[in-house]
Amino acid sequence: MQYFKLSLFIVLCGCGDPSPWYHFQSQIYRSLTQKNLDLLREGTEDFEPFKVALTADPQVVVGFLQSCRTEINKRNDIDFSLLLGDLTDRSLGREFEWVADIIRDFRRPMLTVVGNHDGLIYGNDLYQKMFGDLNYSFIYNDVKFIMWNNNPYEWGYPDIAWLEQEIESHPRVVIGSHQPPGSVERYPEINAIWEGFYANPNVLGSVHGHLHNWIYREISGKPVLTVARVTDTNWGIMEFDDEGNLIFHKCQGSSCEALP
Predict the structure, then answer these.
(1) d(Cα 197, Cα 188) in Å, to the nearest integer?
(2) For strand 222-226 and strand 246-252, is the pairing parallel, antiparallel, or unpaired?
(3) Whether 19 contacts 122, CB under 8 Å
(4) What is the CA radius of gyration of the chain?
(5) Could you tell me which of 210, 192, 194 has the C-alpha nearest to residue 113?
């Protein structure tokens, strides 16, 4: 009888999962970062004006990410989207799959950066299988986007040397990370080192999530935007104008306004 109960438990929980929190059966949702990067090949080698949609922190309120997708999909002037971390709340396999279901139906490519809530339990393994590298970069219309994992409690000391090298490697760069400058804890010296990089003429600005509110500031004259949580259909736009200047807009639903 005990053997029967154990066998039934294993069947119900799903064979092959190390725990019910892991649960990763999908063969579709793998290497999503590379798949979306492949869709960006239509970008030009030279700079041209373009716009990027910004979303952040769908943890717990993932239905609002779907609402943001509806608004972003209505527009014909968005080249791709960024999701700035905390895709999940507890790094559960099902949570990652819920977000992937929504990402799949964006009209334009969606690229992500990992958040602190995405590194709990089996999150490190799940994120890398489903999306890809924790630190990566890509170039679109001659602008390099540096997607940097700066979550110290979950992954240890952020790779600040990699960030600096990526900044030095291209004349136009934008930094995307979950935690904004000044908010990195455990290794607080990271904030001062990082903020020093904004003096580099290659840096155009940066975008972040984590704090769940709209916060606009400048560091060394460069714009830094923290995007509000997707709750109430909050999302943003990062615009590169004809002169290569970086302009931010905050949106709620279909209504958008320029910042600051």
Answers:
(1) 15
(2) unpaired
(3) yes
(4) 19
(5) 210
- Amino acid 177 reads S
* Distance in angstroms (rounded) separating the CA atoms of residues 176 and 182: 14
Tokens of 172: 């136009």
In angstroms, rounded to a whole number, what is the distance separating the alpha carbons of residues 66 and 33? 19
Cβ proximity of 253 and 234 under 8 Å: no
For residue 116, the model assigns a pLDDT of 97
Q: Give dist(CA 27, CA 49) in Å, integer.
A: 36
Average pLDDT, the chain: 91
Please, what is the Cα angle at 134 between 132 and 137, to 5 degrees? 85
pTM of the model: 0.90
Q: Are 137 and 113 in contact (CB under 8 A)?
A: no
**CATH code reported for the domain at 50-255:** 3.60.21.10
